[in-house]
């Protein structure tokens, strides 16, 4: 970009963000005047800073001045960057005067309410309030946090949720692990912004949780796990530690007293605060113990990466580590009944014990969340990989225990502060694997004094956790399974390339499907079992018709397993076969098919489509035919945002079965048609599933359709028209716009409706306000397609209730009880 153009663009940004520009310059100028390196000096600091004492002394202006200064140069740089980015975004979202109100208003409320909490807690003798009563606060992050939380109400559905979840988690972690008054003020400012945003936007505050897709749940849980794992680092890096979970901060001290003197002065029941500190310092005398307290957190970071990749192995790894941390907190801080008795020395000692016990709640809550949402992590590890990892941990643990006992026995007379025996070593060995922060109140029976004993005493736990991390990495990076074997996957794709199926046959590759392979004809049928009903995903594929033998063979297979076979969304040409078998059939959808070689948009019926094409071209929008793997990172992120906004605005979960989501776009055989404006902004996306014959693509089926809420009208018509033109040039035989589930124009035979017709009709009517299947069918009819009925066939009308429930569970596997009740009442 040329300097003149850059200057012009910068000028426009400054003009459109006057508050951000003003407050950034104000913070910078005030820092240069009062001291950018170490912040304002006393007595100016006392006059500008906020706190309980300052407000009691009548410094009413301090909540406003405290958020304009910083404590040091690094903090100043971070504040300036965050002000430009976060306050700037906030001003763009909600305007100048609202941003100014949020910046100073949320900070003032947070500081005043926080100071009142300090005063009240100090009056009743609460330990934390007494420790921080006289501390001064200079903290611009309080105002920034309150501002971005207020602005979240003006953001789109996706970013509103992300901003709120991440901002709240960060604020809570700082309060727990740092515990400065500024951390309390910041959390209160963030909560104030959460309430202020809807008031400024004049929208109703909804208590319900916005719906997330699998992908977004993975992002949010991975973010939450990362923040909770990094939380202890806040305590490690802080110069002062008042947080409820800050004891781990002792690990960064390097003052290690003599092991002998510590044991002599810290015998059981001779417990003082200084004694606890020196015992902990002696326990961390060396690199190994410091790593031992950090490595479990690194395991959680590895698990967070696995969560982003949808790995179920990562879920259970994170649950195991968080559960272990919660158990250790409960055990060593005296919560569990089996915990050993603690010496009663003073009321303050027991208050500290209670505060430390709260550390159980954070990892326990994280573990519970992961268990509750585990269904969103569909990439399953192989049984072999799990066994290998568990055997690796077990073998490493047993081997390290044996080394510790053996070396300790060799050094039993001279290697420790007192003579020991095997029983002493066995009683102590498990604590060698426990992070030191949990042991700070444990009486020490002996400590190592020789180099060999010290190496083993301090490092076997470190080796174990390193092995746990390294061993978990292949499970996070490997291909993984989606409830199927890789051999099956490869065979299914080989059959799909042969052809012989229908327009939705490629959906057989999606997660959740199982396969029955025809031993005679060589084809296959994809199905999923819901309850005792086996629902097929379309008809047979992989072999040329007729498929009578495959259909009858699959029916026998289901009967042998005690399942009710239901052929769902199969072509109507199978109706005569099912009638001969004595089965019932009904139309459940209509596939809309276009012949690209006959594609033309001339005539009155095509007026809407032509108008949409012209409108998009005038707006500078072009169509791109590509794959997900070929997209740059910025485009992939845009697709995720578009999808999440669509999902989050629904009252019911993202649907599955014959409806693909964002994960299905990543298949290398799936093609994308994107609507992109002149600035590279993606306005809409469609995805297309291939249909093969003898290894050659002969047709494409529309699956994924999403657009931005603010995109131009007709952008979808433009994309489908461009796709048809592209397929015409490529010589494609057919282009299927797919079928809208549970929506069709066909009338029931003889004008009547049987029970299943009424069940599916009710299901379609109930889902229409949320998903708009009938509206979708009407939209597709703009393209003058051929309408091909798709049927459902089932052998026993008595099983209709079970089939109806199976269909609901297949399409809405995440449906909650509350949502089911809403669905049953009907919508409309």
Architecture overview:
With 828 residues, the protein is an alpha+beta fold. The protein has 3 domains: 187 residues, Rhomboid-like (Rhomboid-like fold, Up-down Bundle), CATH 1.20.1540.10; 248 residues, no CATH class; 146 residues, Aminopeptidase. The protein contains 31 helices and 11 strands. Strands 1-2-3-4-11-5-10-9-8-7-6 form an 11-stranded mixed sheet, sandwiched between helices. The longest helix is centred in the N-terminal third of the chain and has 28 residues. The relative contact order is 0.07. It is a multi-pass membrane protein. One of its GO terms (biological process) is phospholipid homeostasis. It is found in: Cell membrane.
pLDDT averaged over residues: 78
Overall spatial form: flat
Domain unit count: 3
Calculate the terminal CA-CA distance, rounded to whole Å.
53 Å
Return the structural class.
alpha+beta
Unreliable stretches covering 5 or more consecutive residues: 205-211, 247-284, 337-347, 479-485, 747-753
Spatial extent as radius of gyration: 32 Å
User: β content, as a range?
Assistant: 5-15%
Question: What is the strand arrangement across the widest sheet?
Answer: 1-2-3-4-11-5-10-9-8-7-6
Subcellular location: Cell membrane
GO molecular function: aminoacyltransferase activity
Transmembrane segments: 12-33, 73-89, 101-121, 133-155, 162-178, 184-200, 220-244, 286-308, 315-335, 355-377, 389-410, 455-477
Protein name: Lysylphosphatidylglycerol synthetase-like protein (DUF2156 family)
